[in-house]
Amino acid sequence: MNLQHQTQTPNSRVDLTKNRSSEPAIGNVLTVHEVSAELRCSKAQVYRLMNGKVEGLTPLPTLPLGRKKVVMRASLEAWKIANERNRATVPNDSEVDAVDALA
To answer: Which of 1, 49, 52, 66 lies at a 20 to 30 A Cα distance from 78?
Structure first.
């Protein structure tokens, strides 16, 4: 059997955060707790976002890992941009009423 191993000198360090071509880096996979910290909301709100139960926002894309759900960082960033654009183009009724009240 031919086994190939990477050889390292005793003083060399392995950078575990570097992205390999077939594996995502650890920082690219976010837990519900990490998403809630990023969005500054509760974990319950993140689960509502994942399940599409927040009116006016598209569901947050997830990767199921058994019963656990995780979010890819790229998906979270794209979701934030898409929903920011959606909110910017559709004014809230209270904003329209406030403008009409000033006129």
So the answer is: 66
Cβ within 8 Å of residue 59, ≥6 positions away: 49, 50, 51, 52
- Sheet containing 63-65: give its strands across: 29-30, 68-72, 63-65
Count of CB atoms within 10 A of residue 60's CB? 23
Q: What is the pLDDT along the chain (103 residues), one digit of tens a residue?
A: 555 555 555 565 655 555 555 555 667 999 999 999 999 999 999 999 999 999 999 999 999 999 999 999 999 999 999 998 876 554 556 555 555 555 5
* Both structure tokens of 9: 């000198």
pTM for the whole structure: 0.60
Q: Using an 8 Å Cβ cutoff, are 38 and 1 in contact?
A: no
